[in-house]
Amino acid sequence: MRIKPIWAIAKRELGFYFNSPIAYVVITAFLLLCGAYLFIFGKGPDGQTFFDGDVASMRLLFEAIPVFFIFLVPAISMRLISEEKRSGTIELLVTMPITDTEIIVGKFLGGLVFIGIALVATLPLPILVGTLGELDLGAVVAGYIGLLLLGAAYLGLGLMTSVWTQNQIVAYLLGALLCAFFYFIGGMVESVWTGAQDTVAFLSFESHFTNIARGVIDTRDVVFYLSMTALALVISVQSLQSRNWK
Amino acid sequence: MAAPSKLSGGLNAAVVIICAIVAVVLINQLSSSLFGRLDLTENNLNVLSDASKEAVAELEDLEVKLYISPDLPNSIPFGQTSRVVQHVPQRLLDKIAEYKSHSPSMVVTRVVDDVVEKAKLARIRPVTGTDATRTDAGGIKFDEYVIGATFHYQGHMEVIELALEPEFYEFEITKRLVTLKAKADNASGMAVELAAGAKAAENVAKCKSALEAAAPDDDGGGGIGFLNQEKTAATLAAYRAAVDSLNASCGSLSETTASVEALGDNANQLKRMAAMTGAIEESYKAFTDALGAQEPQAAMAALGQAQRVIAIADAVDAENIDLKNSPGRSKIGFVTNGLTFAPFPNSQPLVPRELEGALAQKNPILGQVLPQLKQIDSQVNEVLARINQGLFRSQGFDIVDIDLEQPIPTSVRSLVVFGPKGAFSDYQQYQLDQFVMGGGSLVVFVNAWDVEILNLTAKGDVADPRLTANTSNIGDLVAHYGIKPTGHMVMEPKQHDQLVLQEYGKRGGQLFPWQRRPSPSPMLPVLSDLDDSSPLVRAMTSVTLPFPTSLELSGAATPLVRTSEAAVTMNDQAFPLTPREQAARIAAQSGEGPLALVAVVSGELTSAFAGREAPTPATSGEEDAATAQPATPRLDAGSGRVLVVGSNLGLEPLSRASILDGFSLTSLTNDNMEYIQKFRQWRANFHNWNTRIGQLEHTLSGNLRFLTNVLDWSVQRDALAELRSKPFARRPLDKTESGTRTGYQLAAIAGGPLLFLLAGFVWWRLRRRRQGGLRA
After folding, report:
1. CB-based contact, A124 to chain B, within 8 Å
2. Which domain holds residue A77?
3. Listed ranges A146-160, B273-287, B301-315; the one with the highest mean pLDDT
4. List of domains in chain B
5. Closest approach of chain B CAs to the CA of A168, in angstroms?
């Protein structure tokens, strides 16, 4: 794998997003949702809003963004490959001196930077909370690291579904479905066979994220997200290569 | 290169994907056993503190058994609500794994089969779910779930009965580890007492088993069985047939009673066990006597006595468990002199049973008053027992009553003087002083003021509100160490809590409870200026100290809790208690704060009796005086710890002496009927004690944490005090007006998007300029 072509593809993707209104519309909507959720309609487990709960913390938002991401990230990833397939530019791309792995990693990197920018754009929120009370910065940093890891895993799944189809809507729906499945699978633990409960609980994106959102960076959670992302990318590469089969 | 066929390409891809999945599984497996954690929170809230690491590292070959129901639902009923437990088991497993990473010899096992039944045997408390199944007998059985753990070390065991609150895992686990260590360290010093307790419990259990085996309760419905004449007759017949074997098991309890009674002074549990085994003996004798009788009523009495034996046997077992746990508890002495609050039920009967009949016969009115008097006494004892268990024993403290006229046992590591209202003699102060000089901890909760609002008189009318200054001289002693209670009551004009006042209505000349009305009171200051460097209050947001007095500090004494600058003081018994007048008086005063309300001093201290002759205890004769000198040599200096809290946290003294003030058997036997008037006063006293507690009840739960922190600190378990407060580290928002909040909400919704769009606009302009440059 070479960095130069990967970065070139990533830049091309970012350029597509930011040279058109797409990025601005999507990220603005995301920011509006985050601000309104944190300060107005979001409620904690005790049913209290941010001001009623009277705690200077970003937990409320950090627990909601993974759900927002279920809708946002597949919207970013849906066109990554399927659009290339639909418009036929994928053939142009593969004639270049570049491997399938580099294409997938480049596309992934472009999407990840987009997610990173969306997260950076939410930084005014912790700054606002910080002016209202003493915010635990460590927990905020951990929360953002967790969101980036979770976003990467979601993006891997979205990219995978984008490889599978030419239709962006299908890619979006499949991606959102997969992300929701892995996020909410923890809630299904009690309804599965006892022997599989531990595995199901382990596969839950939510339980791993909950740990990080508390402010703890546990190597097990980091390894889990990275390995799930890598697995999704491997499957994406293999799926992309299937176009060569006769 | 030729393109692969679908089959070979598909196979190739499948192999790669399977290999990737296997690699992912292996990597995650490996990371589960070799992991590290980095807690980014400021106070390291989520990783073990040094105290916990040290506690687990000290216990070589510690064994932990985890009892977690595999079918635990997402939420379970808890009290009136339900609790989400979805991630709770994982959090418990994670926390235990974190402890294990600091103790290589620690063995962790998870009970898998019959987990609920095995957990019950290990004294883990099951939670009843909402789903039920029909039993073979036609009944309904609700599902039960467990989530708990047992810790085993050198033959000792500690249990977490119900682990539903992950935030408290570290505190709960470390507390048990510290207790296990203390048990292992101290058990050898109590070997004789523990053996005697175990033997007594074994003998009593043998008697209980014999009774149960002689007439097994087949249908499990004991109550209904008593109503069934046939069953009653069958049970009695079974008992009669087994009387020899019953005598063999239950007939020799007098030796048991004697053996535990002989050691009663060494352990309160043995004292209580002796009383219980004595009661079993009596009941068993009554049982065998009644068994021989032919009259049906007497026979029924035999069944009642048998049930009583079984019930007391269970209580003996509970005492034995308590005794076994006692080496792990830190002994704290509660001083009973000086009219303090000391939570010890009185085990002596109010009126000897043999006198009761005679008194009632002599005076029929007394016959009616006595049962009511006994009821008040038993309610007082019940409340004291509940406080003793709920506030102290369940928190791991072994509290013992200390009479300062007697030598202080060496096993006591700290003394608590809780809210004294009376004076201490020179000798009693000397005992306290020498205890501190010997390295002990002295904790004083000052009770400077009696505030009586909506109390009842002996006649049953509502008394006028009253403010009375107490006159204990404990302040004179602690002033020597640099902390002097001024006696002036501190009031916070702005930051204060409220009294909950029970108001009364009157109907037909009789008072009846009408409504509970919250009344904000500056005399209940909410204090948030806490010393961040002290584990006692570091993790607390605020403390509410009812009716506090300020402390003047000198020397090395440091304040732990202080008032705001706006706080004012008063020293006037005529100070108004009605809110409006009180507010007017306070408004006229200027702020005197910050004032210290809790302070500590430790290190090298000088004795309050240095250079003075040591006093002698109060004695009845010269011979006693000669022998009653303190056993320890006189110390003029030493390094102890003294903590003074300028409030009694609202816990007024409660004891037989304080409620039944002036009670004596002699007064009952007089014919002047004075006792009827006294009885009314005693009844009002107990009612008023409850009233005063009720007015401050809502502050007690928060103050309980402070109290237990203080007790942990006093027995040098500072680490536990800090761990207890760790989950409560709150970061409250600054107080904001509604308009400000709206401003923040608008900024949150519009600010981020506007900033982002502005950045996008700048980017677009830059790009246009660059493109323009290229065109040119």
Report:
1. yes
2. 3-244
3. A146-160
4. 50-164 (3.40.30), 190-327 (no CATH), 331-449+471-491+521-615+641-661+698-728 (3.40.50)
5. 24
